[in-house]
Amino acid sequence: MTERILNYMAAHPHEGPRLVVDLDVVRDNYRAFSKALPDTRVFYAVKANPEPKVLKLLADLGSCFDTASVVEIKLALDAGATPDRISFGNTIKKERDIAAARALGIDLYAVDCIEEVEKIARAAPGARVFARILCDGAGAEWPLSRKFGCVPEMAVDVLEHAHRLGLTAYGVSFHVGSQQRDPKMWNGALASAAMIFRTLAERGITLSMVNLGGGFPTRYLKKIPGVESYGTAIFNALRKHFGNRIPETIIEPGRGMVGNAGIIESEVVLISKKSNAADETRWVYLDIGKFGGLAETMDEAIRYPIKTPRDGAELAPCVLAGPTCDSADVMYEKDPYFLPVSLEIGDRVLIEATGAYTTTYSSCAFNGFPPLHTVCI
């Protein structure tokens, strides 16, 4: 919560839900990452929040960009980034998109299988590639599945194949799970990365880079370590597994860069019960739900802090749901959310720490509800 956002909302009333992002917070977060890991380049994960003003600010600060599509590449270029500051970090790419990225000057690509390597060799000959490996996402509130990455032993073969096809086998990447609250989780992944470096060196192939991925958290309802704790833990793990020959490193913060910079203003549309029983749980319906930007409430993984004008009054559990005609549009039910008993229809509520993965998950006018309105201040 920042005074700048509160003052803006008070001075600029708006109908419907909206996200307001404080760019000063984004600036502070970038500087914190740069200080915590001074020898590591920051590749902001564009998917977290692709607002042009956010990208322009980060580009001006010197950030690089992790992109997942040609559209995101163009957004980063439009923001002022040069092609050498952009990676195509999606391991699942159409060959024509690889060719389009290459035509835009992109030289760094993620892979996790031989088939993807062969596409890049055809569409972007001579490019640099890094292999993404599977790793344990324990401790993360939004764990990543087996959709991306391969076992470390396979990564060796993938990178050797890239080398044989004339690509530059550049490095290794991993992701320890989004909203990772344990700084020590990078240790095991770095052990695997070091093994890959050693094995390929024995085969005459010298890797240069470790992509430490994202996973850096923002504060929701649970406390998180400061970014300096992550920097210290990661540096210690690098020294442990690579000794004095620490490779080039990059990080891909998304949530940790913009999550705490944004607040969604929403409205209570309805408060009701499903029966006349005295102990029946209230249902509180907001004008935003899973399809309007709060997709990360799926399986109740991310629990956002919510402020109301009735804070300080008696609390009671409720089911929190969105406004659409879809039964899946329920945010919190298995673990009910506590809100003031005195909450009323029409009350404005503030959903904090929503600067990341909200606008990008906002559906395009499902049920006629428009995509989440966003303002950067």
Task: Give the rounded overall mean pLDDT.
Answer: 95
CATH class of the largest domain reads: Alpha Beta
What is the count of DSSP helices, taking H or I runs of 4+ residues? 10
Model regions low in confidence, pLDDT < 50 over at least 5 residues: none
- Please report the total strand number as a whole number: 18
Task: Describe the structure in your own words.
The chain is elongated and about 75 Å long. The strands form three sheets. Strands 1, 12, 13, 14, 15, 16, 17 and 18 form an eight-stranded mixed β-sheet that branches. Strands 4-3-2-11-10-8-6-5 form an eight-stranded parallel β-sheet. With 377 residues, it is an alpha/beta fold. It has helices spanning 3-11, 23-36, 52-61, 70-78, 95-103, 114-123, 152-164, 186-202, 227-242, 255-258, and strands at residues 18-21, 40-45, 64-67, 86-88, 108-111, 128-132, 140-142, 168-173, 178-180, 209-211, 248-251, 262-272, 282-286, 306-307, 315-321, 330-340, 348-351, 373-376. The protein has two domains: 89-253, TIM Barrel (Alpha-Beta Barrel); 260-376, Lyase, Ornithine Decarboxylase, Chain A, domain 1 (Beta Barrel). β10 (209-211), α9 (227-242) and β11 (248-251) form a beta-alpha-beta unit. α7 (152-164) crosses α8 and α8 (186-202) runs parallel beside α9 (227-242).
Please describe the structure with a list of short key phrases separated by commas or semicolons.
elongated; 18 strands; 377 residues; Lyase, Ornithine Decarboxylase, Chain A, domain 1; TIM Barrel; 29% helix
